[in-house]
Amino acid sequence: SRPSARDLSSGMDWLTRYGYLPPPDPYSAQQQTLDGLRDAVKTMQRFAGLRPTGILDDDTIAMMHKPRCSLPDIILASGYQRHRRKR
Amino acid sequence: YAVSGSVWQKSHLTWRVDSFPVSLSQETTRQLIGSALYTWSRESNLHFEETRAGGADIRVSFVQGSHDDGYPFDGPGGTLGHAFFPGVGSSAGATHMDADESWTYNVAEGTDLFAVAVHEFGHSLGLSHSSAENSIMKPYYQGTVGEHRRYRLPPDDVQGIQALYGKRSAHPGADAPPAPTQRYIPPRGPTYRPRLPFPDRCSTHFDAVANIRGEVFFFKSRYFWRVQATRQLVSLNPAHLGNFWLGLPPDLTRVDAVYERANDSKIVFIAGGNYWVFKDTLVEPGYPRPLTDFGLNTDGVDGAFVWKHNKKTYFFRHNRYWRFDERQGRMDPGYPRDSNLWLGLPSDVDDVISWTDGHTYFFKGPQYWKFQDGQVEADPGYPHSIALNWMYCAAAAPPEPTQEPEGRGQRDCNCQCPAGSG
């Protein structure tokens, strides 16, 4: 089934928090592309041992609700690199 | 396995438990923590020693909510713990467990402290999350791992720790600490609780919005979000009202208005016909007090703010507003007035702030209006979306076509189109 707007929104929050999507940049209005979101979901699914479909399906959403460690899975966040470049 | 890129430059490390969970005894907690560290030293050239002195290399604490390290906890479920990689800086080696979890050991209920501690100490020693099937460094909680003295690290984690610190030398050190003599029995039956249903910041309407010390606080039910002066959202998840603002009634389900007083920087919370005054995050004695103290004869207020241009406090209720002089302690004469004197503003606003950029923002439902510096007429082009401009929410994606049309006029098109678009 298609993810609801609520699932999509909380899914993007989750993907950002754990390093799969770059953090929002308050100085630009750039929005996340659907391709970028799909790639991030695929990476998350691969990491979690799910089938990498790129679709925010029920199994993926359930995995996002599992208790877990607070640290990100992908440490090299692009936001960090972006700020490094700016300096 | 994955490594963080930093390691301890010594093989003898000290550890200490700085605070304890409520659901396990201190002795059990120390045993499990010591044993969790031992699982790593058993496979590597590392040695751990408990110390009661301050300044230990690995410091374990049980904390709740926001605790000033950028990784706020979120109550039962959700995030369970985190630890900082080795390296320079005061945070290196700090290991935090969410005090709101029901910490247990080797039972099906609750959250197994030993299992989580082994994982977090992997971070403390320089390992990142692993996607390997059986790794303890998988980011997701996998339940109890059994009796702690029998536990051995999975092969992926053994390789990881040995890559960082080498294999254990021929003469193994002391055995693991003995098992706790008694198993923990949960005091309140099954302790599994689903994650609390936070309000969705992207679709909710806020009860109150306030500028406190230059940050904007968005209140909804028993939760709030913080937006820094740089417009950065402190956390995507809300914090619990009672974990931060100490002294509000535990059964308070919402606040109607919040503002920082101009004359003494104290913070005023209004809910229903009552108000509370806070010094920093602690309520002052003698509260709640009735709103009649302000000379308000209404059953409540929708919003309140201090206009930076005259330092006066404005209260809004339905389509009227009042102006209060905090220094004189009385309402200014000539009020209430009609709120449509603020041109372009709807009635029944949710709340108002005067922010550090000098502008005044009115919030109602999912939208907000901006009034330029000292003006009483809304900027053209407003209202704008709170979700998009304050809450870091994505704009709704356009619907995707269910079938690719082959060409105009060649075949009937089967697309999902916006209602009314023809």
Question: Could you characterize what this model shows?
Answer:
The complex is a heterodimer of chains A (87) and B (422). Helices cover 51% and strands 2% of the residues of chain A. Chain A has helices at 5-17, 34-48, 58-64, 78-86; one strand at 68-69. Residues 77-87 of chain A have low confidence and may be disordered. Mean pLDDT of chain B is 84; it is low at 178-195 and 397-422. In chain B, helix 1 (26-41) packs across helix 2 (113-124). Helix content of chain B is 11%, strand content 25%. The radius of gyration of chain B is 28 Å and the shape is elongated. With 422 residues, chain B is α+β, with helices and mostly antiparallel strands. The A-B interface holds A 5-6, 8-10, 12-13, 16-18, 24, 26, 31-32, 34, 46-49, 63, 65-73, 75 and B 4, 71, 73, 77-83, 111, 116, 119-120, 123, 128-129, 131, 133, 139-141, 195, 200, 202-203, 230-233, 236-237, 392-397. Strand 1 of chain A pairs parallel with strand 4 (79-83) of chain B, so a sheet runs across the interface.
Write a short abstract of this structure.
The complex is a heterodimer of chains A (87) and B (422). By secondary structure, chain A is an all-alpha fold.
Note the main attributes of this structure.
heterodimer; A: 87 residues; mainly alpha; globular; disordered C terminus; B: 422 residues; alpha+beta; five-stranded antiparallel β-sheet; 5 helices; 25 strands
